[in-house]
Amino acid sequence: MSHLSDTGYGYFKHLLRAWKIAGVLLVHGLLPNVWKDKASDMLCKSNSTRKYLLEKHYGIYEAGGRDFNED
Questions:
Q1: What does pTM read for this prediction?
Q2: How far from 27 is each of 22, 23, 30, 33, 56, CA to CA, in Å?
Q3: Which of 40, 55, 64, 66 is the most exposed place for a label (fewest CB within 10 A)?
């Protein structure tokens, strides 16, 4: 399970986090004006998750380890 190794989560921690985000997306899908940014905020709340998404899904490699909250 390289995805778990890549993200740094154990099986149950990953499962719980995925279900939480899925619940947020379900509510947002039914009520588009509710929780507009909550799922993306949950996904990118840590630099390691942001780095994983940028590198694995978008092929973007940042130099210098930018702090996500510095904007």
A1: 0.61
A2: 9, 6, 5, 10, 27
A3: 64
